[in-house]
Design a protein that fits this description.
The protein is an alpha/beta fold and 253 residues long. Helix content is 37%, strand content 18%. The protein has nine helices and ten strands. The strands form two sheets. The protein has a seven-stranded mixed β-sheet, sandwiched between helices. A three-stranded mixed β-sheet has the order 5-10-7. Strand 1, helix 1 and strand 2 form a beta-alpha-beta unit. Helix 7 packs parallel to helix 8. The longest helix is centred in the N-terminal third of the chain and has 15 residues.
Amino acid sequence: MDLNKACTFIMPFRIECPERQRNLAFTIGWLASLKANIMLLEADVKPKADKDSFPENVEYIFVKDPNPVFHRTHYINRLLKHATTDVVSVWDTDIIVEYQQIEEAVQNIQNGCTLAYPYNGEFVMLSDALSAELIEEKSLVGIINNNLQPIFNRPSCGGAYFANRKKYLLLGGENEHFTGWGPEDAERLRRVQIMGHMVKWTEEGKAYHLYHPRNENSRFFDEDAAIEMRKELVKVCGMNKEELSEYIKTFAV
């Protein structure tokens, strides 16, 4: 599959543990074979990524950011505006799916969806041992044959998504009221649905999350942040289309 002119993968990140560094390198290699544009943005006190190892189709940006809270939604918006392709994919550093699922998600966007998920809603958290096995084998075959169970009993909407870039930006892009780790994935999905836009998951195929410790960028920063971001989710989910259209104007990028 050659997505060179069709899609841009964007990936803002912060490396806070060796496992995240390992996962980043593997995920970039996994996506790079698609020949798509890949835009990375590292925001931290100093660079930690091994940028010399990145493939040719990777654009790397470093932003000096001493804030202990990684404002991921802000950096996603920055990359959304920087991208030029009609289809973009926002990808976590730790997510692996089969290539045909990516192709199906791209086709869903090209066929009119505003959001498309490259998996069937089933999201599997891999153990450290299974993550190491996947990275060593460079194949999902063994993992898929294990028929691992997803972590939720409902369709997931995190980890990776594709978007029609122009349509999504008109819907506000990322809601930067979510200043760190939180329920921004659920808010994004619900906002797009309330505004009457099409959303699809792939017919088959799970998403697999490589292991890393749950450090400061994988949980609420503190209780105050947790309360405020939960309030934001409830606020958006409680709006009708007209109310949400006006609210989007207050944070649209």
